[in-house]
Amino acid sequence: MKLAAIDIGSNAARLQISTILHNDGIVSFKRVEYVRFPLRLGHDVFNFGELTAESEARTTKLMQVYKLLMELHEVEDYMACATSAMRESANGQDVARRIEAATGIRIHIIDGQKEAELINNVVVQALDDRQFLHIDVGGGSTELNLYKNRQKVNSKSFKIGSVRLLEGKEIKGGWRKMEDWVEDNVDPSEEIIAVGTGGNISKLFNLASKIDDSSTTVTEIERIRDYIAGFSQEDRINKLRLNADRADVIVPAASIYISVMKWAGANQIIVPDLGLKDGIIQLVYSHLSRKKRG
């Protein structure tokens, strides 16, 4: 059985198709297809307050492509979720309805709390009993989630993201509010480890020197950020071989991770290969399993 997730963010839209595996009563998910396309919806929304006709047309075409891929893979069920850009867009709901009418793909515009919940459902599997601060940086928002003993004890969504910073559209006082939240919620008497999710931290982690297979240090992330910042946009693409839509947002994204880690006193960051799309697939599987049980 194959299931799919579509994640429509402020910078890019992703399709992931996974096969469901059953082994001695244990269910696991194996990725068989992954496609990412840079729609840059956040550029419209953070500058003009709504999605343009051009962006709507491109998103509609992309959903048609994703639908065909799901049909070719014989996907049994799927869910499409849109996050910060579409939920803040004045015409987001109208655009979603028109895309569904044109393609048959229903887009669920989810709030920051639901977004964090879906990511947390898969990230928690990578944690142990220590204190962890999960940082998920998207194009339009950053979700922070605090864990102790594998239990989420607090969370907050902030309107600070890589595309929003790139466009100079961060909310006034946003950085201060995020720093205050970290200081109010993280216990300084306990060790704190950061957990990073999102495309930018995954790329930074790939470029960094590692502590082990899944972790590195804030110092190393800062070194990589400063190294990339020393190149022009053109050289980031041609010399560092970054995708054009990654080359401009990776530095502001890195600054968010670094700032949060320093506020929290976290010297180490774990970067699991997990994200919203994995949480969506897990949710689709849960819904489908309940439906089949009657």
UniProtKB/TrEMBL annotation:
UniProt-listed InterPro entries: ATPase_NBD, GppA/Ppx_hydrolase, Ppx_GppA_N
Pfam assignment, any one: Ppx-GppA
Gene3D superfamilies from the UniProt entry: 3.30.420.40, Exopolyphosphatase. Domain 2 (3.30.420.150)
CDD domains in UniProt: ASKHA_NBD_PPX_GppA
GO molecular function per UniProt: pyrophosphatase activity
Source taxonomy: Bacteria, Pseudomonadati, Bacteroidota, Cytophagia, Cytophagales
Protein name: Phosphatase
Domain Ppx/GppA phosphatase N-terminal: start-end pairs: 30-281
